[in-house]
Design a protein that fits this description.
Order of helices and strands: HEEEEEEEEEE
CATH architecture of the largest domain: 3-layer Sandwich
Radius of gyration: 27 Å
Number of domains: 2
Number of strands: 10
Oligomer: single chain
C-alpha cells in the first residue's frame, strides 16, 4: 500500500468517526423518553377486599402521585402520600390512626385534613370503587 493511499484511508476513517460521533450526540438529545404505562392509568387495582385488615394501609408508588390506601371501619380510603407543604413522602401510622410527614412533623387525619404542622392544604382524596371482591382507586 502506498503512503498516499494509506493517508487517504486514515483521513476517511477519522472523518467517518467524527461524523458518526456527531450523529450519535445529536440523537442522544432527541431520544423519546420512556414513560411507564401506569402514568396514564385512570384506575389502580389495589387488591382483594379482605387483603387489608381494618386499620392497615398499603402504599402505592404511582408515577402520577404515590398514594396511601387505608382500610377503616367504614371501608377503604385513598389519600395522596405527598405532603402539601414541601412534597415529602408521608408515612401512615396505624397505631395512631394518622398520616405523618417525616420532614416537618406535619400530621394529617384519615380524612386528609391537617391536624398539626405547616401544610397549607389537606391531602388530595381519591375515589374508591369495590367491584366484586376487588378494590380500585379511581384517579
Amino acid at each position: 500500500m502506498k503512503r498516499r493511499d494509506f493517508l487517504k484511508w486514515i483521513f476517511r476513517g477519522t472523518l467517518s468517526a467524527w461524523v458518526l460521533g456527531a450523529i450519535g450526540a445529536i440523537f442522544s438529545f432527541i431520544r423519546i423518553p420512556r414513560v411507564e404505562r401506569r402514568e396514564f392509568e385512570k384506575e389502580i387495582e389495589v387488591g382483594e377486599y379482605e387483603d387489608l385488615k381494618i386499620g392497615e394501609g398499603k402504599f402505592i408508588p404511582h408515577l402520577k402521585e404515590p398514594l396511601w390506601v387505608i382500610r377503616t371501619e367504614g371501608g377503604y380510603i385513598a389519600l395522596s402520600a405527598v405532603c402539601t407543604h414541601m412534597k415529602c413522602i408521608l408515612e401512615y401510622k396505624p397505631d395512631e390512626k394518622v398520616i405523618k410527614c417525616p420532614c416537618h412533623a406535619a400530621i394529617f387525619d384519615l380524612s386528609g385534613n391537617v391536624v398539626q404542622g405547616p401544610p397549607p392544604n389537606p391531602l388530595e382524596r381519591y375515589r374508591i370503587e369495590i367491584r366484586g371482591e376487588r378494590v380500585y382507586v379511581i384517579l
